[in-house]
Design brief:
The protein is of the alpha/beta class. The protein has a single domain (9-235), classed as NAD(P)-binding Rossmann-like Domain (Rossmann fold). The protein has helices at residues 18-29, 41-50, 64-78, 101-129, 150-169, 195-204, 211-223; strands at residues 9-12, 33-38, 54-58, 83-86, 132-137, 174-181, 232-235. It has a 7-stranded parallel sheet with strand order 3-2-1-4-5-6-7, sandwiched between helices. α1 packs across α7. The protein is globular. It starts with 8 loop residues before the first strand and ends in a 6-residue tail after the last strand. Belongs to the short-chain dehydrogenases/reductases (SDR) family. GO terms for molecular function: oxidoreductase activity, acting on the CH-OH group of donors, NAD or NADP as acceptor. Keywords: Oxidoreductase. It comes from Pseudonocardia alni (Amycolata alni). This is NADP-dependent 3-hydroxy acid dehydrogenase YdfG.
Length: 241
């Protein structure tokens, strides 16, 4: 690494597929050294084999201590962390009267606690350096609620609110962005076990955008001048209303 022009380091959670994989790929192509994290080690290894500049690290964002250890190690080895993309998320939609409490708990654990754990692991390093860029992948569900999406939308509204609070609390050198995707072609819907929600999602996802469209939005926010803070981007298919 050239000390006068160091390679920027980006952490991307949930990087094994879909939006996270697209973001990790785009940031690596844009010149970042990408620390790609997710639970599925085989998917991360495949990503690293295909995309130069990607360093795979299997970790579950629900495991706070493991995430802190990883980030501390990254800073110790690379001397910096410049971007943290909190993208890990799950979406097992269901009506509330379906009573799928364990699935609700998993959404809260990954979508909310996982975000908080990522912030906790990175914020001290950003604050010490008085620079850095947090990016949260929320959802249009942060702004609207559909039947079968009450819990998911609740977690994504929480993600939006937490990220906005982070923006207000952070020192001037730290930038904060929320990207809220609409319908995106990804594996998220594969986790839906409730038949009613699964059927509704099949119709809802007829017009989906590629995950690279969300990666483009992240790259735009990250690539702006350090004195510009792109606070929120909504990106969705033209046909989605």
């Amino acid at each position: 690494m050239n000390d006068t022009n160091p390679t920027p380091v980006a952490l991307v959670t949930g990087a094994s597929s879909g939006i996270g994989r697209a973001i990790a790929t785009r940031l690596a192509q844009d010149g970042h050294h990408v620390i790609a994290t997710a639970r599925r080690a085989d998917r991360l290894a495949d990503l690293a084999a295909q995309v130069p500049g990607v360093e795979p690290h299997p970790v579950d964002v629900v495991d706070r201590d493991a995430l802190v250890t990883l980030v501390d190690d990254v800073v110790a080895r690379h001397g910096r962390i410049d971007v943290a993309v909190a993208n890990a998320g799950v979406m097992p939609l269901s009506r509330l009267d379906a009573g799928l409490v364990q699935e609700w708990d998993r959404m809260v654990d990954v979508n909310v606690r996982g975000l908080l754990h990522t912030i906790h692991a990175v914020l001290g390093h950003f604050t010490s350096a008085d620079r850095g860029h947090f990016v949260t992948t929320a959802s249009v569900g942060a702004h609207e609620v559909d039947a079968t999406a009450a819990v998911y939308a609740g977690t994504k509204h929480a993600a939006w609110a937490i990220t906005e609070g982070l923006r207000l609390e952070s020192s001037p050198g730290i930038r904060v962005t929320t990207v809220s995707p609409g319908v995106v072609a990804s594996e998220l819907a594969a986790g839906i076990t409730d038949p009613t929600a699964r059927d509704a999602m099949a119709v809802y996802r007829r017009h989906a955008i590629a995950p690279e469209a969300v990666a483009d939005a992240v790259a735009y926010a990250v690539g702006t001048s350090p004195d510009i803070d792109v606070n929120e981007i909504l990106v969705r298919p033209v046909r989605q209303r």
